[in-house]
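Can't paste images in this forum, so I'm doing it all in text. The chain is below; anyone willing to post the predicted structure tokens underneath?
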Amino acid sequence: MVDQTKLKNYFKDQNILVTGGTGSIGQCIVSSLIDFQPKKIIIFSKDDSKQYLMKQQYHKHKNIFFHLGNIREYESVEYVTRGIDLVFHVAALKQVPVCEDHPFEAVKTNVIGSENVIKACILNKVKKVVNISTDKAVNPTNTMGATKLISEKLFNNANSMLNNYHTKFCSVRFGNVLNSRGSVIPLFMNQARSGNALTVTNPMMTRFIMSISDAAQLTLKSAFYSNGGETFIFKMKSLNILTLAESIQNFFEKKGLTAPTIKQIGIRPGEKLYEELIYAHEFEHIVEDDELYVILPKSGIDFFHFKYNSNPFYRSDQVELMKEDDIVNILTKLEQGVL
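Text version of the structure:
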């Protein structure tokens, strides 16, 4: 398992670009990178308001720079990748309902935008590119998952492109990130604080979950380990949606507040009852350690300290489910700002 000293030595004095760097995960990656003393961090996003606020937060850091642009525009991406050693590609359309309503917008950002990043990074001889993907890319039933699957395939294929002699590409599959924009916990908490019912889609639904800090650390470790073509997956616990709703009721009761009711509304278009992390055809290429699965580009490769495992846990309804007390503890930490 890689320690913080090795990570610091790896990222120190590097020129790093974070696309979508003003989002929840992008900001956490930037915050984690600062401790490793990179030469330069460029935060690339199309949201001028978030850039303005983030500039105020990091105004004392002379190695942090901001560039306003959109990954859909190749010229902008090509310009901002000049002189860059390492790219974390976080920018994407991530909200399932939005992508269902605007499928070609999802294609333009998640597919064409990703191809722009790939072409620009190869042209400018970037050393490594880490693509942020999702468990929804496995056996997708919605537009967002389908576009992220194509994005994964683009990044994997980029390692063997004829004009690529320098750049290594890999992907990271996330579960649901706690307290990120659009995730279920802030949705439920806002409903509860407003006196509204908690809208449970289906009481059997389960989801993989990870903290924002875990997501950032996984991403940094993936950059360290990658030799090109891997998919990295954090070993996550799972959450039952009904248990989450009941835990929020318990959380409000313990604070002496009126507990919200629960309303079942049915599965939204494109949603699944459970999520998956790994395709069956990937099993023979999987290695693992205590915290990560890694899907290698082919089997038989010696990969650091990782050991082969042909029978991983890969569905959110088959791994350890979080108990109500654990969820209430998470809610308390989120409210205190310590998670």
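The mean pLDDT is 92. The first helix runs from residue 4 to 11.
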